[in-house]
C-alpha cells in the first residue's frame, strides 16, 4: 500500500498544484458556509441608520446582534424589523418595558415611569421635551400586552419610537436580536453596556 508521500511523488507539479487548490477551495467553501450559518442563526451584523440612539450608538455604526435564544428584557438595545410611517428598514431602539408592564411618560417632568418607578437613564444626554403639537399622535400611557415590548430611542427628542401611534407597542416577533457590540468603526469597537 502506497502512503500519501509516495502518491504525491508520482504526481506532476501541475497535478499536485491542482490537488492543493482543490483542498483550499473546499476549506474556503466550508468556512463560508459556517460563517453564513452563524450569522443567520446565531447573530447578525446590522448598520445603524439615523441619530435616534445617540449617544449610545451613532449613524453608520455596525453592530453585532445576538439572535438565537434571545428574549427581550428591559433596558436592552434591540433591532426591530416592523415597518411604520416612512421607516421600512431595521430600526435600533432601547426596550423600556416588556409584556405586563405599565409605562407612563410625563413630558412636564421629563420622566418615563415603568410600574410606578421613574427610570434612571444615564444613557440620555438631554432632557426629554414634549413633541410639537400636531407633529404626531403620541402615546403617554400604556400597559404593554404580553408578547410585546415598548421601545424608545436614547435621543428622545429626535426619535420615532413606541410613543408614536404608528409604531406603538411592538410584537416580539419583530425583534431581530439584542445589540451586544459595536464592530465598526474600530474607534467605537466594544461591547455595549
TrEMBL record:
Its main location: membrane. Its EC number is 3.4.21.89. This is Signal peptidase I. It catalyses: Cleavage of hydrophobic, N-terminal signal or leader sequences from secreted and periplasmic proteins. It is a single-pass type II membrane protein. Pfam families: Peptidase_S26 (PF10502). The gene is lepB. It comes from Pseudoflavonifractor hominis. The lineage of its organism: Bacteria, Bacillati, Bacillota, Clostridia, Eubacteriales. It is an enzyme of class 3 (hydrolase). CDD domains: S26_SPase_I. SUPFAM superfamilies: LexA/Signal peptidase.
